Amino acid sequence: MRIDVIAFGSHPDDVELYAAGTLAKLGAQGYSTAIVDMTRGELSSRGTPAVRAREAREAARILGLKIRENLEFPDGDVRVTAEARLEVVRVLRKYRPSLVLAHHWDDRHPDHVNASRLVTEACHHAGLASLKTGQERFRPNLILYYMLPTHTTPTLVVDVSDFSEKRSAAIRAHRSQLFDPGNREPATYLSRPDFLTHIENIHSFYGTLIGRQKGEGFYMRGVPEVPDLLAFTCAQSDNRFR
Questions:
Q1: Measured distance CA(230)–CA(194) in Å, rounded
Q2: Cβ distance 125 to 135 under 8 Å?
Q3: Separation of alpha carbons 2 and 182, rounded Å
Q4: Bridge partners, 69 (sequence order)
Q5: CA end-to-end distance (rounded Å), the chain
Q6: Cα Dmax for the chain
Q7: Number of C-beta neighbours around residue 134 at 10 A
Q8: How do residues 19-72 score in pLDDT, each as one tens digit?
Q9: Is 92 in contact with 67 (CB distance < 8 Å)?
Q10: Full-prediction pTM beyond 0.85?
Q11: Phi, psi (rounded to 5 degrees) for 64
Q12: What is the set of domains in the chain, with CATH numbers?
């Protein structure tokens, strides 16, 4: 099965927090979407790997994903190794996505940092004919990075105003990680009562950058080419009246 868009996340809820609206929108537009989690989140202070796997499946159902896989790299110890990179290469060559979403590399969590580098390197190496996996070589057209640091201006913002409820439902599927007054497990950053409000504020901010209610911001390396300047201009025409 060929997948149009694959989003890679270090942990089972990473993609949902910052790119679920985009995946839901792409799915509604007829594109096939997938999430590949790198770890089972077994070092999390809340929940178990089994619980988190069930939550990930529920979030996948909500978002209409075609595929959700877990590479089962060790949580807290995602490393950029030849073996790990080859596992990601196999995924890319298997599903052949045009677009890949990955963590931004500037992050305090070492798994996020290494996952970003790992996916970036794998996207390059997947196109090398001399790297043998028993599959045809393949290289995605584009990598977009999510979970941007506060000082980074997004290269582009996707209007996800119509998919806010679906994104919120996908995030809330990971209930073991979120605020629950009856939960006696250790508190974390995600389990703070105001955490979901904080996430919504981020998407509201990105929305203001494009004159919309909600947005999700992405960064790309390099300068994007505009093949048809007039088509691009026409697509932006309603910005004059916002």
A1: 44
A2: no
A3: 43
A4: 36
A5: 41
A6: 58
A7: 6
A8: 999 999 999 999 999 999 999 999 999 999 999 999 999 999 999 999 999 999
A9: no
A10: yes
A11: 70, 35
A12: 5-241 (3.40.50.10320)
